[in-house]
């Protein structure tokens, strides 16, 4: 029998993660069948596009070295075998000890030698880790599996043949799309804005992956409106300041920025009007809270009928976050509470999160207001705040960022990390919730995919603290100014005008940058392959009972692609954040039963079963 042919389109960490699971499960499920795996990606296998080495050395991960792994461990609940291996920091330690043989680029030597477990590594170092992981997967392949790399793009699929941009083609028995976030053409409102901007000679940069956008045309000294205050803004801020020759120096115990004179002036605002919270710089002081506690399948099952995310599920999620928070506060800092944890936990379990009784319990048992979890204020820190001037607002926001940095650096506030851990637990359970089909469709698209995903990113996926220190230094140097919440941009008298709900001031500019990734939109995908597959009816955009979500429609249980008529493609699969599974990143924290690892294993096992399943006889149902 000729070998089976499998095409994995997208050879970044997700695609290589699927390859690792194919290898791990082959002994049980592949048998004597031979398999050729074609990895198709113009970028290096392992790192892929996002984590490629060829990007600015200024760009860092927003995870600590100890919090990154590509390997399954004993916590991961999968049917396939566990394949343990080193986290990023453990790999660094083995490299330093000479226990790992991997050639690093010369400019990574200093970082490698000085990196601590709680440092935030460069993306270039993560690229090296992912490249090493890929080579480990290749070295561990069982007999009968061969990998062929194709350093090009896939441009189309028809009749089980994958066409390649270099003119070649591959016959594929099975296709796996691991294409990551979907780059998208501007949505209609952005497209109209771009047309109007062009008509007035203005520069408009739509949403995109910051490291791939060319900002060299932004002139020095130019006043630039920036819409978005998350991780994309942090990257943009660095590329247009330090990336243009400016320098950060320590001065009198604080950070100081020395401009090069080539920087523009960035006026930044967003819906919240504040940057993402800095990552915590401490560990839990008590044992890790037992999670999940309240946001469980049993609790969700008890809610009758269709589920409204914000009205019915958010109270359970909020109680889960509060459980993680107060578990750490009571056990890690008992001197700051009035009740023993046993009594508090019993009473806490009896009350709804949004009840008067819960409010009274927390007021009674937690005397310090700074020790009480206020999720509403956390989500909307500038709500109902209006300042008389841009200067007054700027002063307030500087104080807000300074307080956030102080709190995230002080282990006295490790309860915040308890809430963080609970939020990660909740996020990992959401794909299973979506798979039940019980969510109200509008609530799923607007509340879960919209608001909650934004809240998760804002609270749990923020930048290293150093980045907010740099932001403050840039603001003091006059290179960045804070525009405020509910940022609005209009075109007036041939220029962009930015305003906000935070103060009456306005800023005029000739350049506008959308500092964010595009929202999921298969219908506007800029990738030619996805457009071709959508136009020919081989892929479908997920409809949540008639409401488009923008994602590739897949079967959550095994990643199988779903056709426009609702039937599964028998031999096509897709995994990633912009599929129905709504998974997080391809790598994750160690020992967290990561959903991405579970999805990789389930899909790999289904692929192997499909390859070895006897063909159906004519007329067989």
UniProtKB/TrEMBL annotation:
InterPro entries: FAD/NAD-bd_sf, HpyO/CreE_NAD-binding, L-asp_N-monooxygenase_NS-form. Signal peptide: none annotated. Residues 7-181 form the FAD-dependent urate hydroxylase HpyO/Asp monooxygenase CreE-like FAD/NAD(P)-binding domain. Residues 564-584 are annotated as: Disordered. SUPFAM superfamilies: FAD/NAD(P)-binding domain. Pfam families: NAD_binding_9. PANTHER family: BLR0577 PROTEIN. This is Adenylate cyclase. It comes from Amycolatopsis acidicola. The lineage of its organism: Bacteria, Bacillati, Actinomycetota, Actinomycetes, Pseudonocardiales.
């Amino acid at each position: 029998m000729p070998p089976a042919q499998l095409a994995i389109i997208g050879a970044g960490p997700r695609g290589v993660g699927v390859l690792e699971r194919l290898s791990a499960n082959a002994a049980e499920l592949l048998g004597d069948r031979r398999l050729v795996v074609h990895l198709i990606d113009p970028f290096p296998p392992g790192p892929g596009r996002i984590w490629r080495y060829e990007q600015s050395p200024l760009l860092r991960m927003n995870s600590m070295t100890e919090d990154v792994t590509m390997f399954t461990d004993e916590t991961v609940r999968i049917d396939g075998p566990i394949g343990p291996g080193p986290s990023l920091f453990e790999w660094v330690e083995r490299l330093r000890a000479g226990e790992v043989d991997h050639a690093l680029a010369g400019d990574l030597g200093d970082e490698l030698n000085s990196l601590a477990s709680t440092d935030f590594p460069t993306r270039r170092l993560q690229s090296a880790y992912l490249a090493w992981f890929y080579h480990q997967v290749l070295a561990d392949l069982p007999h009968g599996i061969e990998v062929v790399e194709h350093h090009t793009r896939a441009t189309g699929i028809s009749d089980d043949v994958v066409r390649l941009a270099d003119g070649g083609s591959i016959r594929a028995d099975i296709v796996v799309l691991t294409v990551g976030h979907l780059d998208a053409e501007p949505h209609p409102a952005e497209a109209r804005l771009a047309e109007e901007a062009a008509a007035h000679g203005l520069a408009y940069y739509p949403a995109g992956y910051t490291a791939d956008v060319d900002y060299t045309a932004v002139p020095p000294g130019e006043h630039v409106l920036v819409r978005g205050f998350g991780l994309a803004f942090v990257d943009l801020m660095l590329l247009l300041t330090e990336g243009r020759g400016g320098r950060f120096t320590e001065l009198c115990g604080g950070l100081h920025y020395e401009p090069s004179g080539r920087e523009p002036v960035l006026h930044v605002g967003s819906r919240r009007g504040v940057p993402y919270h800095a990552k915590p710089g401490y560990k839990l002081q008590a044992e890790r809270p037992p999670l999940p506690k309240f946001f469980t399948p049993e609790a969700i099952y008890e809610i009758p009928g269709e589920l409204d995310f914000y009205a019915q599920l958010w109270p359970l999620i909020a109680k889960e976050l509060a459980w993680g928070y107060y578990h750490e506060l009571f056990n890690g800092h008992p001197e700051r509470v009035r009740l023993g944890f046993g009594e508090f936990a019993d009473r806490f379990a009896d009350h709804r999160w949004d009840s008067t009784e819960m409010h009274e319990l927390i007021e009674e048992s937690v005397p310090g207001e700074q020790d009480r979890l206020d999720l509403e204020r956390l989500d909307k820190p500038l709500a109902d705040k209006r300042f008389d001037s841009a200067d007054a607002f700027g002063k307030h926001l500087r104080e807000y960022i300074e307080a956030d940095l102080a709190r995230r650096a002080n282990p006295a506030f490790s309860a915040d990390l308890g809430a963080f851990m609970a939020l990660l637990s909740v996020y990992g359970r959401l794909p299973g919730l979506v798979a039940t089909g019980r969510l109200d469709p509008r609530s799923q698209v607007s509340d879960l995919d919209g608001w909650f995903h934004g809240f998760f990113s804002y609270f749990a996926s923020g930048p290293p603290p150093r980045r907010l220190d740099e932001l403050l230094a840039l603001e003091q140097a006059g290179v960045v100014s804070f525009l405020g919440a509910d940022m609005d941009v209009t075109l007036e008298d041939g220029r962009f005008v930015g305003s906000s709900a935070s103060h009456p001031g306005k800023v005029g500019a000739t350049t506008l940058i959308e500092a964010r990734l595009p929202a999921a939109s298969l219908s506007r995908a800029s990738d030619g392959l996805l457009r071709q597959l959508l136009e020919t009816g081989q892929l479908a955009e997920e409809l949540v009972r008639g409401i488009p979500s923008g994602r590739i429609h897949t079967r959550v249980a095994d990643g199988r692609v779903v056709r426009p008529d609702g039937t599964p493609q028998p031999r096509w699969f897709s995994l990633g954040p912009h599929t129905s599974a709504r998974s997080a990143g391809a790598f994750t924290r160690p020992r967290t039963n990561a959903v991405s690892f579970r999805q990789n294993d389930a899909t790999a096992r289904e692929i192997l079963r499909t390859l070895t399943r006897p063909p159906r006889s004519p007329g067989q149902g």
